[in-house]
Design brief:
By secondary structure, the chain is an alpha/beta fold. The chain has 13 helices and eleven strands.
Length: about 350
């Protein structure tokens, strides 16, 4: 890849003062030439020190091409990412969550893989915790488990290049957004699913590369993790009304488990105990197997003994969220109108207009 290719590294944040300094250190340490990196920081009107931390980062001379701070008044993630896209002038757009950590060669490796002819690249995204405690490591074990979190392949490192339906912390050639537009701002947690669906429909492929890796900080409290799972499920329910094709069957597994649990519980009230007994036994086998797996493969902590109770709570929270989202979906969809789709096209036009190559032509 040409040394003159400009990379736009985009970060969005809302009240992220506890994690931003670590990410800023990661960005400052990047081995890719700083004169070919612009950093786009989007603050969604934070009420903590997030904005001032961004200002301090901008004021520090790291020799970047530029550091731009943008305000997102709409609060949600999709609108924040659209603000970043509208401000970005790079040939390559990289999205990094505020709760992330990236190695020193992250941008370099993304650039190298794009040079090989890919349009979108990324890699595994394991979870990590900061300020390790026994309880945080227990939550991390639950989050990393296939049973407790997700079977999605794009969450985990690969041994060879593979093409997936989605990627975390991906690097996109600018032309991708110039063709498919921005994010659907009506979506709260599934904006990636919907965007990547449009990207696949447009003929682009998302390549997971074994030499690219980034890390995501897991939720540090059980309350926050439950809230996250409920929210994830809730937006899955809502998204069925606008983009069913961008969701996979595994997104609905907790919801199906919840429905079966309710049905079999009702049958038990009428004296039909075998279905609920079978469900309980089958679930207990998976629960026990995955708990043993955590003891065998993880750094064991005493709190691991609560994992058999933690797993079902996470599943039920997700399932309840999906149920609530499905109930609200018809009314929510009716209120949407065509505003989200107009914004998607507006962002596409801004991306084209801000393309330096187009500016040179005029």
């Amino acid at each position: 890849m040409s040394k003159n290719m400009l990379v736009s590294l985009c970060v969005i944040a809302y009240n992220e003062e506890k994690v931003l300094n670590g990410l800023f250190r990661n960005i400052a340490a990047q081995t890719y030439p700083h004169q070919d990196i612009e950093v786009i920081l989007v603050d969604s009107e934070s009420t903590d020190k997030t904005r001032s931390m961004m200002e301090d980062f901008k004021a520090t001379d790291y020799k970047f091409n530029r550091v731009e701070i943008v305000t997102n008044s709409k609060k949600n993630q999709a609108s924040a990412w659209n603000c970043a896209l509208c401000a970005a002038k790079g040939d390559v757009i990289i999205r990094i969550d505020a709760h992330a950590s990236i190695p020193r060669d992250f941008i370099r490796r993304c650039a190298d893989n794009l040079e090989e002819g890919e349009d979108i690249v990324g890699g595994g995204r394991p979870n990590i915790v900061d300020n390790e405690t026994s309880w945080k490591l227990t939550l991390l074990a639950a989050e990393e488990s296939l049973f407790g979190s997700s079977i999605a392949e794009y969450r985990r490192p690969t041994e060879k290049k593979e093409y997936h339906d989605s990627l975390f912390h991906a690097a996109y050639r600018r032309k991708v957004f110039e063709k498919v537009g921005g994010f659907n701002e009506s979506l709260g947690r599934t904006e990636d699913n919907e965007l990547h669906y449009r990207i696949r429909e447009a003929g682009f492929k998302m390549c997971s590369c074994p030499d690219i890796i980034s890390f995501q900080h897991t939720r540090n409290t059980f309350k926050h993790m439950i809230k996250q799972k409920f929210g994830n499920g809730y937006w899955i329910g809502l998204t069925t009304g606008v983009c069913r094709g961008c969701l996979s069957y595994f997104h609905f597994v907790p919801f199906a488990f919840l429905l079966v649990l309710i049905l079999f519980s009702v049958l038990a009230c009428f004296g039909y105990f075998y279905p609920i007994m079978f469900l309980t036994l089958a679930y207990a086998m998976f629960d026990f197997t995955n708990t043993v797996g955590c003891f065998v493969t993880k750094k064991v902590k005493p709190q691991f003994f609560v994992l058999p109770l933690l797993f079902p709570v996470l599943h039920i929270a997700y399932g309840v969220g999906t149920l609530w989202g499905l109930i609200k979906m018809p009314f929510w969809k009716h209120k949407l109108g065509d505003k989200p789709y107009k914004r998607i096209e507006e962002v596409r036009q801004i991306m084209i207009k801000n393309n330096p190559e187009n500016s040179q032509d005029t």
